[in-house]
Amino acid sequence: MPVDEFAPLRSRLARAMDDQGRWPEDSPWVRDAVETVPRHHFATDRVWTWDGSAYTPADRDTDPGRWAELVYPASPLEPTITQMKQGLPSSSLSCQSVVVDMLDSLMAEPGHRVLELGTGTGWNAALLTARVGSGRVTSVEVDPVLADAARERLGAMRAGVEVVAGDGAAGWPERAPYDRLIATYAVDEVPWAWVEQTRPGGRIVTPWGRLGHVALTVAPDGGSATGWVQGLAQFMLARGTDQGRTLSEVRGDTMPDTEGSFARQDLLPLHADVSLLFALRVLLPDVRITTKADKAVAAWLHDGRSSWATVVTQEDGRVVAYQGGPRRLADETDQAWQRWQKAGAPSLWDFGMTRTPYEQYIWSGNQETGPRWSPVSQPARIS
Fold it and tell me: Has residue 290 got a pLDDT over 50?
């Protein structure tokens, strides 16, 4: 497909961003960069999409129309999968709304030195360079194949980005300190190396867990970093992270161990309340929650190991929980829900994080006086 034929798809995506109010007012440079550095320049020749039962490929050479539709989806909430590993997405052009939101949260200024962790295709590094200038961005990619391809793309655009192959958890001390650090993959614990390599007063933006991203400011003495949750979105985990078993693998063909009324008769908040969902992520870090809303809301829960639950609304209006495995995930979810409500149901943006050399903790309201949030239960980590 000729380059000029991408213009209608690019305009459609930009209008969707406008309609949903997703362009940041405080960072107009982000929109300028997105319009100057097109997505398709960084897309792989083969991309994938979920068709409801499996991931299927679309090739630029043989199906250019479908390929372009996946690179520039109608919704700014849709990513473009650019690599598959062991049947799962392992790299992508992130959905445009998340890319924009994280760049806005980073508060990068011209001349800043930036460390990016997770180069992927190289698009985010190019957007950063459009803001801070050539030679100011260092990007670390754990996959040498992706690193080589991104280096070539960025070189063709003369972006001046130094792309290195390495483990992002270690940062890149050779060019430290940095004014800004941004990760494009999710971590459960912010590596202390990231704080050490960011100057006092510098800013770290990273996806946390499976559900949101945070922006931390390094303290004047460099001894901690703290900040607020910035938004809700799902991110790929750090390469090599064991993602556990899927719901179908956990449940298999087993029958539930228990069946009974769920304590709550309105499941809509479990589907639509982002603040509740984030609180449940904090309190039940290993529980994955999937919901669907048709005539009524249904929820599926599992812990990636051996326990599962299905919560559905019956025709008579009763909400019933079916639970299997050693844990009672529906009951745990209700307990966590109650804890959030008793704390005053803090919103997503009331939550913050602090990282020190010795610990990481989530708080709400006020770092000094607000409550700290710890998991309801402490199951063994998947490793």
Answer: yes
